[in-house]
Amino acid sequence: MNAPNRFDALPHFATAMKAIESLKPTEPLYLVQPDKFAGAAKQFLDGFPGDVLYAVKANPHPIAITNLWNAGIRHFDTASLGEIEAVKSLFPGAICHFMAPVRLPGQAKAAFEKHGVTDFVVDSAAELDKLLSETGKPAKLRVFVRLVAQLGGALLEMSSKYGCRPEEAAKLLKRVRVAGAAPCLTFHVGSQCLSPFSYAQAIEIAQRTIALSGVEIAALDIGGGFPAAYSGQEPPPYHWYFDMIKEALNTLGPAKLNIMCEPGRALCAPGISLVTQVVMRRGDRLYMNDGIYGSFDEQRFISFDEDYPPTGITLDTRGKAKLLSGEKLPFRAYGPTCDSADVLPRPVLLPDSIANGDYVLFGAMGAYTVSSRSPFNGYYPDSWAVIG
Asked: Which of 240, 268, 296 is the endpoint of a domain?
């Protein structure tokens, strides 16, 4: 059964063009597409051989969480007490998993006692000791030891900060078992992973760790990293990932093993688009109403697309939205703040007819946009509409 719709007050439109025609937005506008949230969730719920956890950090906004809940997601990868409380305030029946290897003092205790969280991650003996001390009931816990998985294939690696090698992980698994908790393993192959084979390699590392420890694990969380399809960058289809994972799991261990994954970007990126407006054009420069301190923070990472091919839109004399025409040229896009660093790191390709007041539509903007925006200089994008 779907959750009550908390966003009935948001304006609804058939298309992005209709939204622009009607609202003529002068502030950045997030366009929510529930059907794309539903489609992304269905691919994982139907294809992945285990529990699907939404990585809340990718987009913790109630709109994203609610759309994914309505699409059937019931498990959530939460990395802080704040994320747990955000999910539970919306859906008390949600199953939260505290998957951060290092937690602030007292957060494990609060998560366990107030919110019934029983899954936790560690990558050190010190954090394991703290977890056991704060919760006090190891028999109720599943403790996931995080492995290093620096394998390449991902645009953003996720193993330089957290994780341990198989030898150290094997020792931690033994300690978890002796303490009376259920020993488990996890890893993260990196964000926007374009190589399905990386998951098979990481599962092989998990297999080696299990052999070193002599411990039968209760669950394996293969982490996130599943890619979103961005303009100019088409990842392999998800079924390639799922098939590779299933094949690798056949060599791992008992059939009863609980398998989990933590997609974030893959679940929320397709479901939100962004409408920005050109405040001023100066030659090949566009001064826009959103930038690095708003929805484009992640674009600082130079490993993403070589260019951004968004859609240029204008309003004609009758106020009707239409696509801009003309040869596409590279423009430098600056955000609205007074900081000279507020510029997208690579050019955007737009028709040479673009002018003051025109709009630029960016697709697949649901991940690491809303979650990383800031109110720097008094700008904070937070206007919403629903399309579809």
From this structure: 268
* DSSP-H helix ranges across the chain: 16-23, 34-47, 62-70, 81-90, 107-115, 125-135, 166-179, 197-213, 238-249, 265-268
- Distances in whole angstroms, Cα of residue 315 to Cα of each of 25, 139, 334, 354, 357: 12, 63, 22, 11, 9
pLDDT averaged over 10-residue windows placed end to end, the chain, 388 residues: 57 97 97 97 97 97 96 98 97 97 96 98 97 96 94 73 94 97 95 90 95 95 91 83 94 81 96 98 98 92 62 95 95 97 93 98 94 96 96
Tell me the pTM: 0.93
Angle among Cα 87, 93, 94 to the nearest 5 degrees reads: 45
| Angle CA 213–215–220, to nearest 5 | 100
Query: How far is the C-alpha of 91 from the C-alpha of 95, rounded, in Å?
Result: 9
The residues facing 119 across adjacent strands are 142
Query: In 3-state terms, what secondary structure has residue 66?
Result: helix
Q: What one-letter code names the amino acid at 105?
A: P
- β-strand partners of 359: 277, 313
Which value, to the nearest 10 degrees, does the dihedral of the CA atoms of residues 112, 117, 122, 128 take? 30
Could you tell me the maximum CA-CA distance found in the chain, to the nearest angstrom? 75
Q: Are residues 253 and 378 in the same domain?
A: no
Q: Which of 213, 241, 268 is the last residue of a domain?
A: 268
CA 202 to chain centre: 20
Catalytic residues: 338
Neighbours of 276 (CB within 10 A): 28
Whole-number Cα distances in Å, 217 to 101, 114, 208, 365: 18, 27, 12, 37
105: domain CATH number is: 3.20.20.10
Question: What's the domain count of the chain?
Answer: 2
| Cβ neighbours of residue 101 closer than 8 Å, sequence gap 6 or more | 121, 122, 123, 124, 127, 146, 162, 163
Could you say which DSSP state residue 113 is in? H
Specify whether 378 is located in the same domain as 327: yes
Q: Which of 163, 183, 182 is nearest to 173 (CA)?
A: 183
* Dihedral Cα 324, 325, 327, 329, nearest 10 deg: -10
Residue 6, burial from CB neighbour count under 10 angstroms (0-12, 13-18, 19+): exposed
Number of H helices, E strands in the chain: 10, 20
